[in-house]
């Protein structure tokens, strides 16, 4: 799948998130990259041979206080090649992308991996 088509599915996944969450998504860039870097995988504790579907980089909202001022945008990156490598078929891509977007939104709002393991994904 070409990047333009993949990005279109990502935009639809973001638009499908509850409006109440999207409104609270402040100063966050959402982008697509082919693959994570070795540094990105290491920062998450992901082995080089394992897939990393998405990554939130920034300061979660629950950790921001009155001293949190102008800052570079937080960043949510979806890794196209990694997502495609775990998808059983092209028809599964929108679901996997939606789950990944949901997962990274949750990190923005302060959920840790252990918290997310308790939940299956978007309602």
What does this structure look like?
- With 123 residues, the chain is of the alpha+beta class.
- It has helices at 3-15, 19-23, 38-44, 80-86, 93-108, 113-116; strands at 28-33, 54-57, 74-79.
- It contains 6 helices and 3 strands; from the N terminus they run ααβαββααα.
- It has a 3-stranded mixed sheet.
- The mean pLDDT is 84.
Throw out a few tags for this protein.
single chain, 123 residues, alpha+beta, three-stranded mixed beta sheet
In helices, the fraction of residues equals 40-55%
- Please tell me how large the radius of gyration is: 14 Å
Question: Pairing-aware structural class of the strands and helices?
Answer: alpha+beta
Give the spatial strand order of the biggest sheet: 1-3-2
Q: If helices are DSSP runs of H or I spanning 4 or more residues, what is the number of helices? A: 6
Tell me the β content.
5-15%
- How far is the N terminus from the C terminus? 27 Å
How would a textbook summarize the main sheet?
3 strands, mixed
Helix-strand pattern, N to C?
A: HHEHEEHHH
**What is the approximate shape?**
globular
Residue-averaged pLDDT: 84
Low-confidence stretches: none
Tell me the number of strands: 3
